[in-house]
Amino acid sequence: MSPLPTATLSLSLLLLLLFSSSTTTTNAHNITRILAKFPQFSTFNRYLTATHLASQINRRQTITVLALDNTAMSSLLSRHFSLYTLKNVLSLHVLVDYFGSKKLHRISKGTTLTSTMFQATGAAEGTSGYVNITNLKGGKVAFGAEDNDGKLDATYVKSVKEIPYNISIIQISHPLDSAEAEAPTAAPTDLNLTEIMFKQGCRAFADLLKATDADETFNQNLEAGLTVFCPTDQVVKDFLPKYKNLTAAKKKSLLLYHGLPVYMNMQMLKTNTGIMNTLATDGADKFDFTVDKNDEVVMLDTSVVTAKIMGIVKDEEPLIVYKINKVLLPKEMFKPVESANAPDSAEAPADSEPADDQTLDDNNGVQGLRSKRLVMAVLSSCIGMLLM
């Protein structure tokens, strides 16, 4: 067999690189999932979620978390801070720069000041939201809040998880003291979901929530995090004839289907596309839909209809409310569309059970496998033609 021409080798290499890149996926870090593998940080992990710091950490591309084990967290919780003050204290333990174990031990001139998420909130005066990192004798690394009179409260214990240069989680021995972060913090202004909707073109949907008491379920999820997809007034008005034919239980399920029990801003939706559980999800009653993205447009596919997000009504963590251009119809209550060209008139009570559920990871895996198969087919075909 004669050697392959240079052009053939170049094209083959290009296709191999294309295949290699297609098999690589970029996944944002998830602090909750990472820490869930380490029971000694369970309390710290729980309060990152309760204070909504977890979602803020996940949105950062470069971050270092100074993790406290359960013993250190017990010491901190014994001070009985309010949840809002505790959020400030914990945000002081999140550095907005990457410090892996090697970098910590190789700090230029042996000491540095670095900004934290507490500084980024704007609540910290001056540089009180900065943390001092100093190399001590014997290879020790110490940490202290900048507004703590130069006192270094904690030392480096070990590296828990590092994904260079994305996220670094390192354990420190004690909580960092800061008068500024520990100052009493008032609760944010109470959020009234239906009142927000009344003022922003979602009055009709809000009226339905109140009429079915579904608003109570939405409000119960506000503190932990809530995402609402609100069909605009005209969309709801056009759907009312079908809505009135539903039983009371189905009406409530339909409305709950428009909420997620977690705060998901636009960037989070774009980077976490896949199957989402809703407020209507309950055991065997899946009531989920798929979040997809086309360029910068985010779509919600229920298998019956595909709705587009048209804008944001309110975004004040832990609540975000989106406007959508269709009522979301769950496949548990309406007949799924069999093809992309099927008319909306196919919306009718479902006669069969919905398709089996898939997790977000499974869904992405199927898409990745199809992509790999496509690239492999192209690769084989091109090399085959070149060898002829």
Automatic annotation (TrEMBL):
GO biological process: root development; shoot system development
Membrane disposition: Lipid-anchor; GPI-anchor
Domain FAS1 span(s) in chain numbering: 28-176, 189-328
Low complexity bias (residue ranges): 339-352
Region annotation Disordered: where it falls in the sequence: 339-365
PROSITE patterns referenced in this protein's UniProt entry, alphabetically: FAS1
Domain of life according to the entry: Eukaryota
GO CC entries: plasma membrane; side of membrane
Keyword terms of this UniProt record: Cell membrane, Glycoprotein, GPI-anchor, Lipoprotein, Membrane, Proteoglycan, Repeat, Signal
Main location group: membrane
InterPro entries assigned to the protein according to its UniProt record, in alphabetical order: FAS1_dom_sf (IPR036378), FAS1_domain (IPR000782), Plant_FLA (IPR033254)
Pfam family, one: Fasciclin
Signal sequence, start to end: 1-28
Places the protein is found: Cell membrane
Similarity field: Belongs to the fasciclin-like AGP family.
Function of the protein: May be a cell surface adhesion protein.
Name the record gives this protein: Fasciclin-like arabinogalactan protein 2
Species name: Hibiscus syriacus
Organism ancestry: Eukaryota, Viridiplantae, Streptophyta, Embryophyta, Tracheophyta
